[in-house]
Specification:
mainly beta; UDP N-Acetylglucosamine Acyltransferase, domain 1; 8-stranded mixed beta sheet; 20 strands; Hexapep
Length: 178
């Protein structure tokens, strides 16, 4: 794949059944779990730290994934860790944060360094999550800066897995076209 680029001799590694659209570009130390889908114009740079994306997660069109370098004041830096069954909406910016499982990051969100998002969370479209904030499991967060809006409804909790399952089906259709 021409869109998988090495950085300092390290090239992204892919699980089984991964789909990466040809206009997306991934550099460096990136690990994609099984059935991950990366959609058009995604830019992911695992150059100064690592990126890990869990099984069945999807990164939608125009999203940017990056990390923060290690330094004397922050020896681990901030890698980007995305759990399983995560849906990252169009044009999201994820930078050196940690997302749990079954999360929806709405379109146009910005999630910054040191943020930890627990499992089963929805971040509303256009929200900005400032550095080092923790988003608690089972809630909706919205705004700039993102604030807790309310607990998720049962239907929303169910939707989180349905969304990732739908993207696995869609990427399989795309893979079938190749």
């Amino acid at each position: 794949m021409k869109n998988l680029k090495s950085y300092k001799g390290i090239t992204p590694t892919l699980g089984k059944g991964v789909y990466i659209e040809e206009s997306a570009v991934l550099y460096g130390e990136i690990t994609l779990g099984d059935d991950v889908s990366i959609w058009p114009l995604v830019a992911a740079r695992g150059d100064v730290n690592t990126i890990s994306i869990g099984a069945r997660s999807n990164i939608q069109d125009g999203s940017v994934l990056h990390v923060t370098r290690r330094s004397p004041s922050n020896p681990n830096g901030y890698p980007l860790i995305i759990g399983e069954d995560v849906t990252v909406g169009h044009k999201a910016m994820l930078h050196g944060c940690q997302l749990g499982n079954r999360i929806l990051v709405g379109m146009g969100c910005v999630v910054m360094d040191g943020v930890v998002v627990e499992d089963d969370v929805i971040i509303g479209a256009g929200s900005v999550v400032p550095p080092n904030k923790r988003l608690e499991a089972g809630h909706l967060y919205v705004g700039n800066p993102a604030k807790l809006a309310r607990p998720l409804k049962e239907s929303e909790l169910t939707f989180l897995k349905v969304s990732s399952d739908n993207y696995v089906k869609l990427k399989n259709e795309y893979l079938g076209e190749l």
